[in-house]
Design a protein that fits this description.
The structure is a single chain. This protein has a domain of 172 residues. The chain contains twelve helices and eleven strands. An eight-stranded mixed beta sheet has the order 9-10-8-7-1-2-3-11, sandwiched between helices. A three-stranded mixed beta sheet has the order 4-6-5, with no helix packed on it. Helix 2 runs antiparallel to helix 12 and helix 3 crosses helix 12. The longest helix has 19 residues. The chain is globular. It starts with a helix and ends with a strand.
């Protein structure tokens, strides 16, 4: 488990490696190691720049996407309504474009349930009875899902901001049970999205949560087909298959541009394979994003 003390040690190591006298050598050395790690699943072989929207940014992208952005291989859009995550996202320039709202299937305002562990925050209220049936004893005892407050936030749809956004090639949604509502609010945008990645659950843990079956049915009706599903959430759910990352491709775009779709498939696989890679994460932190800029879209 990633503890506070480990986080402080990591910050110290990064601060040392970013000293002017060490930074250039550190980046070169770490870059060489990372190049070896990613050689077999690097998505950049076709050389086409693409744009990723991450709905539920929580202050930063995964390390592989961040590394590609630092190399100028990908553009990123981060969506995060929760105040602490948004502040981190803006301070660290974690994305090229930032949307400080929640996405759903309508415009307006809504309560955001703030949980003990911010990764459980949602527009839906955690269902403690449902959670107790599926989580591990450790998760139940530490109660990361416990609601500690609410924030009233602005809610809109992806379609409503379509004219202000660049073309979205890869859409990633992780909004703790509200994924289907986000998709339903992006009906006009989805036709141009080449690939999707969603966090899905086989059993609901939030009130009124729509599970994988309903999400897949909707995406198939919009012309998408599933190509990858990876089990996750072992810490929370143990060996039970409750939660997964699932990826779909746009069938029409796959027929018109199969090479681009294969590029995005490699990206999706590499992103998952390298999610917890400590060397890649360290390289991203050492290189930093000070030279990059972010644009807020509202």
């Amino acid at each position: 488990m990633y503890t506070a003390s480990m986080k402080n040690v990591r910050k110290f190591i990064v601060s040392v490696l970013r000293l002017p006298v060490l930074k250039q050598a550190s980046v070169l050395l770490l870059g060489t190691v990372v190049s070896g790690i990613t050689a077999t699943n690097d998505n950049t072989k076709t050389g086409k720049l693409f744009t990723v929207m991450q709905v539920g940014g929580r202050g930063g992208a995964d390390p592989y996407t961040k590394w590609l952005r630092l190399r100028g291989k990908v553009k990123t859009i981060g969506v995060e309504p929760e105040s602490t995550g948004l502040a981190k996202m803006q301070a660290t320039k974690a994305f090229d474009w930032i949307v400080p709202h929640a996405f759903a299937d309508k415009d307006g305002t809504a309560p955001l349930y703030i949980t003990k562990a911010r990764g459980w925050c949602s527009l839906l209220k955690p269902d403690e009875a449902a959670i107790k049936r599926v989580v591990t004893p450790l998760c139940w005892n530490t109660r990361p899902f416990e609601v500690v407050g609410t924030e009233t936030i602005n809610v809109t749809t992806i379609d409503a901001l379509k004219s202000k956004l660049p073309t979205i090639d890869f859409l990633q949604i992780d909004v703790q049970g509200a994924e289907l509502a986000v998709l339903q609010g992006a009906k006009n945008t989805l036709s141009g999205v080449a690939a999707l990645e969603l966090e899905v659950r086989m059993k609901p843990i939030y009130e009124n949560e729509k599970t994988y079956e309903a999400i897949n049915e909707y995406l198939e009706s919009q012309g998408f087909t599933l190509f990858q599903m990876t089990k996750q959430g072992e810490l929370e759910f143990g060996s039970a298959f409750i939660e997964a990352n699932a990826c779909w491709i746009n069938v029409r775009i796959a027929q018109q541009n199969p090479e681009f779709i294969e590029n995005l498939k490699r990206y999706a696989k590499a992103k998952h394979d390298l999610y917890a890679n400590s060397v890649l994460r360290l390289l991203c932190d050492v290189r930093g994003t000070e030279h990059l800029s972010s644009t807020v879209i509202s």
